[in-house]
Write a structure and sequence with these properties.
The protein is an alpha/beta fold. About 45% of the residues lie in helices and about 20% in strands.
Length: about 325
């Protein structure tokens, strides 16, 4: 076995601070991710071990440096995601990913697709008039749909945004909640409001709502309508019945675009009801102009534990008889 040691210089104290992370948290994650010895002194990283493994580790470190240069930040998710891409030989694609800005928020924050799955999702929305995004929690399904809707509105590609959710509850009955019907379903629409507040700000969002340029409504309110020149998002679509899904899809008018998001592993419908999102994959799979994008645990951009939780559930479900 040939042992080798290489040194990588991070160029500046600022870059080193970002690369290593608060209390060296990033460096600890990196040490666990590679099969070589890592040590650091100042802005220098020392890599020691079997030659082939040292070369692999150095390639990973250089890719992470590229992330810091382009993004000005680095986290545990970036490290583990980049390691995964390197193992599949896809790291050059990630470098291309870092150059594409989708939108800037009202605070000037740049929004980009953070994973290759998210990049495919964004490109699919640009190419298709109807896109289904299916995947677990934390993969950015709803947030990126809202971002792309605001982008289309800013570019005057559409005249309004319509955000829709089925009023299906996880463990509670609407009848037991206080208030009229609108007040009862409002909590289920909160994630859509949160996305808009982050991208547009609270004041701008409220102005758009007051002028009906943005409409947020429960799915039941869509029956009988035709929506022209609109960007329509159906969120939590796993909780639609087949009849409701057909009703929603036939609301699409001229100049409109629809994005349907959901997680087929979290269906809250009564047991006797079949999910419209599950069925629609069989019905529309071969229809031109419709995109199906599947996000996975590799696209989770929340706390690193979320990815581990999803993996654990998948292993548990796979082991069931």
């Amino acid at each position: 076995m040939t042992e080798k040691e290489r040194k990588i210089d991070l160029d500046s104290n600022r870059m080193a601070a970002i690369f290593f992370g608060t209390n060296d948290e990033n460096f600890k994650v990196l040490k666990e991710a590679v099969d070589v010895e890592l040590a650091a002194r100042g802005t220098e990283i020392f890599v020691r071990g079997e030659e082939a493994l040292v070369n692999e580790a150095c390639e990973l470190i250089h890719s992470l440096i590229h992330v810091v240069e382009k993004e000005g930040s680095l986290g545990a998710h970036d490290i583990m995601y980049m390691k995964e891409l390197h193992s599949k030989g896809k790291s050059p694609q990630y470098k291309e990913l870092l150059t594409g800005t989708v939108l800037s928020t009202w605070k000037g924050k740049v929004i980009k697709a953070k994973t290759l799955g998210q990049q495919r999702y964004v490109q699919s929305i640009l190419r298709h008039d109807v896109v289904f995004s299916i995947g677990p929690a934390g993969t950015g399904k709803t947030y990126l749909a809202v971002v792309m809707a605001v982008r289309a509105l800013r570019n005057r590609e559409v005249e309004r945004i319509v955000l829709v959710r089925p009023a299906v509850e996880a463990g509670e009955k609407l009848g037991f909640l206080p208030g009229d019907f609108v007040e009862k379903v409002n909590p289920y629409l909160r994630p859509l409001y949160d996305g808009l507040f982050d991208v547009l700000g609270v004041e701008a969002t409220q102005r758009y709502l007051d002028k009906n340029i943005i409409e947020i409504a429960p799915l039941a309110y869509m029956r009988g309508r035709t929506l022209n020149d609109a960007f329509i998002i159906l969120d939590e679509a796993q909780n639609t019945t087949p009849v409701q899904m057909k009703m929603f899809l036939t609301r699409l008018g001229f100049g409109s675009k629809a994005v349907i998001t959901g997680d087929v592993t979290q269906v809250d419908l009564p047991k006797e009801e079949y999910s419209g999102l599950v069925e629609i994959q069989k019905i529309l799979r071969q229809v031109d102009g419709i995109g199906f994008e599947y996000l996975s645990q590799n696209d989770v951009v929340r706390h690193p534990l979320v990815q581990s939780i999803i993996n654990a559930y998948e292993m548990y479900d796979g082991a069931k008889p």
